[in-house]
Amino acid sequence: MTPASSYRLFLATLGFFTLVAGDAWRYLLSWWGWGAIVVIVVTLAVIELVRSRVDVRRLPILLLATLALMTLSIAWSAYPGASALGVAATLATTVFAVFLATCFTWAELVDALARAVRIVLVLSLLFELVVAVFVRGPVLPLWVDHSGLEEIPKAFYWSRDVLFDGGRIQGIVGNANILAMAALLSLIAEIARRVAGRGSGLGFVTWVVLAAGVLALTRSSTVFVAAAVVAVVCLAAWFARRGSGPRRVATAIGLLALTAGSAVAAVIFRGPLLELLGKSADLTNRLDIWAVVADLSGRRPIAGWGWISYWAPWVEPYDDLVVIKGVTYLQAHNAWLDVYLQLGILGLVVVGLFALTTLARTWVYALDGPRDSALVPMALLVAVLVQGLAESRLLIEIGWAILVLVSIRTATNRWERR
C-alpha cells in the first residue's frame, strides 16, 4: 500500500477525534455544529474512496448483511423516521471506517489514532484544570437551556469541577467512561507504536503516563475491566505466536477456559468485586435498565422495534422508557441487549456472527500477522467488545468504527498489497 498523503492523515486524525469525542463537538457547537462537521468529514472520505477506486463489493458479507438488516428494519419500525436517521448515522460511521480500512496501513492508522486521542486527553486535562482554577464550579454544555429545571442532575454537566476533589473527571467529552475509553485506546496505540519502533522512548513514557493518569482519574470500572481483558488476551496471543500448532491450540483452549472461569468467579464473588470497583449492587442502575429493556424487547422478539442506534429522546417509547433521578437514559447499557431491542433475535444472530467472526480473524491475525501490527486489531476490538457489555457504545461512533475497520482489514489482505 502506498504511503498516505499528509492530507489523508489529517483527515483520518480529524475523523478519529470526532468518533472518540463527538460529545465535545456537540457540547461546544450544538448538535447542528457536530452534524456539519460529520457531513464534511464523511463527504471528504467519500471523495477519497472514489479517488482510490475502492471496490465496496469486496466488503465482508456479514458487514453488508448487518447494514442491510438495519436498513430493512425501517419497513417494520415503530418509528420509521427516527430509524431512517439512525441508519443514516450508522452508514456515515461505516463509510468513514471503510475509508480508514482501505486507504491506510496499520502503522498509519495507529499513528492517526494516537494523535487523535492525545489531543482528546490533553484538552480534557486542560479543560478540567481551567474549570477547577478559574471557573470554580460545574459547567454546563453550551447551547443547552436547563433554566426550567428546579435542580439540574449531575449527569447534565459538561464538567463537575472535581479535579481537585477526588471525583471522576469527565474531560471535554463530558463523560468519565468515554474519557476512560479514550485513555485505553491511547495506551493501546502508544504501546503498538513502541513495539514497532516508532517514536522516542521519552515520548512513549510521556504519553503512557498521561493516558494512565487520565484513566485513573476517571475511575471507570468498565474500562478498568476492559484494560485487564485486553492485557490478558494480548499476553496469550503473544505466547501462542511463539509456538507451534499444538501450542497455539492449547493456548486458545486455555484462554477460553480462563474466560469461562473468570465469568463464573465474577458471578459468585460479585459482591466483593462490585465493592472493589466502587459499584452498587445494581451496577449503577444497570440491572433496572436491563429489566425494562428486556421487557420491552419481549413484545417484538423476532425483528425488534426498528434500528435507531442511540435512542432518540423525542421518540416513543424511548422518551420516557428509563428515567432515573430526572435523567432520561438513551441506551440499554449493553450493546447486545440494544441489538435485541432494535433488531430482535434476527439481529442478535446477524450482528453476533459479524462480531464473532471478526474476533476470530483478529486471533488468527495476531498469530500470523506482521510483528509490528499483529496484536493491534485484536486489542482494539476486545476493548470495545468488553465495553459493550456495560455500555451500548459498540453500536455508535468509535465503537462501531473499530468493529467495521477491524472486520474489513482482517477479512482480506488485499488492502495491504495496494
SSE layout and pairing:
Layout: H1 6-20, H2 22-52, H3 61-72, H4 80-103, H5 106-135, H6 176-195, H7 201-218, H8 221-241, H9 245-268, H10 270-276, H11 286-297, E1 323-324, E2 327-328, H12 335-368, H13 376-387, H14 397-411
Antiparallel strand pairs: 1-2
Helix pairs in contact: 1-2, 1-4, 1-5, 1-14, 2-4, 3-12, 4-14, 5-6, 5-7, 6-7, 6-8, 6-13, 8-9, 8-12, 8-13, 11-12, 12-13, 12-14, 13-14
Domain O-antigen ligase-related: 208-351
Transmembrane segments: 31-49, 61-79, 85-107, 119-139, 169-189, 201-217, 223-240, 249-269, 339-360, 372-389, 395-412
Subcellular location: Membrane
Describe the structure in your own words.
The chain has one domain (6-417). A hairpin with a 2-residue loop joins strand 1 (323-324) and strand 2 (327-328). It has 418 residues and is mostly helical. The protein has 14 helices and two strands. The protein has a two-stranded antiparallel sheet. The longest helix is centred in the last third of the chain and has 34 residues, at 335-368. The termini are close together. It has helices spanning 6-20, 22-52, 61-72, 80-103, 106-135, 176-195, 201-218, 221-241, 245-268, 270-276, 286-297, 335-368, 376-387, 397-411; strands spanning 323-324, 327-328. It is found in: Membrane. Keywords: Membrane, Transmembrane, Transmembrane helix. It comes from Pseudolysinimonas yzui. Residues 208-351 form the O-antigen ligase-related domain. It is a multi-pass membrane protein.
